[in-house]
Amino acid sequence: EVQLVESGGDLVRPGGSLRLSCAASGFAFNTYRMNWVRQAPGKGLEWISYISSSAYNIKYADSVKGRFTISRDNAGNSVYLHMNNLGAEDTGVYYCARGTHSDIWGQGTTVIVSS
Amino acid sequence: DIEMTQSPESLALSLGERATITCKSSQSVLDSSNNNYLAWYQQKPGQSPKLLIYWASTRESGVPDRFSGSGSGTDFTLTISSLQAEDAAVYYCQQYYTTPLFGQGTRLEIK
């Protein structure tokens, strides 16, 4: 079964850091671009980052540039999102999604930034 | 940067009616090979988004054929031909021609 499973979401204080993980299974992970998309409570979807299959090409939304880092481990079929200097505006559900047009999504992991 | 504008923000229709949601991009998302880098997603409450349409008009496997996408360049439409109760959701367009960007979403209520 093709599947993405996110983990690592937590309650963190403003200014803190967190690393999210997304474990892939059931497909040739090393051939796909991977995305992170987030959703603040009651709000719409916000694409925040992607990493190409070889990790050669990486992009970020302006809202997270300089604070978040995406990486991947093709041997371990996982993609990561390292988040630093977190603020309340980073609170939400974080999804990983497969491919250029995001055909497979995980169930999401929740990040709450609060003191 | 490309901006995406969806309309309407919300709509309420009855079972069996046709729903039409539009999405406009501030720049063309059509490439030289005639591919429109535009996708549509459905998100039901408490669920992850689901891909419905990609390349503006290609229906994802398993998506009912009452869902269709059309348009080219900067103007796109998602049509649901005959609404079912399970179509109540928020619908998003997304361009992936440049740095990906979602529209703000359209909430569809079934009366």
Question: Would you mind describing this structure in some detail?
Answer:
The complex is a heterodimer of chains A (115) and B (111). Chain A has 115 residues and is mainly beta. Chain A is built from no helices and eleven strands. In chain A, strands 2, 4, 5, 6, 9, 10 and 11 form a seven-stranded mixed sheet that branches. In chain A, strands 1-3-8-7 form a four-stranded antiparallel sheet, with no helix packed on it. In chain A, a hairpin with a 6-residue loop joins strand 5 and strand 6 (58-60). The mean pLDDT of chain A is 98. Chain B has 111 residues and is an all-beta fold. In chain B, strands 2, 4, 5, 6, 9, 10 and 11 form a seven-stranded mixed sheet that branches. In chain B, a hairpin with a 2-residue loop joins strand 7 (67-72) and strand 8 (75-80). Chain B is globular and about 40 Å long. The relative contact order of chain B is 0.34. The interface between A and B is medium-sized, with 19 and 21 residues.
Task: Show the helix and strand layout.
The complex is a heterodimer of chains A (115) and B (111).
Chain A: E1 3-7, E2 11-12, E3 18-25, E4 34-39, E5 45-51, E6 58-60, E7 68-73, E8 78-83, E9 92-98, E10 104-105, E11 109-113
Chain B: E1 4-7, E2 10-13, E3 19-25, E4 38-43, E5 50-54, E6 58-59, E7 67-72, E8 75-80, E9 89-95, E10 101-102, E11 106-110
State which percent range the strand residues of chain B make up.
over 45%
In helices, the fraction of residues of chain B equals: under 10%
Give the structural class of chain B: mainly beta
- What spatial form of chain B do the alpha-carbon principal axes imply? globular
Alpha-beta classification of chain A: mainly beta
C-alpha end-to-end distance of chain A? 39 Å
* Beta-strand percentage range of chain A: over 45%
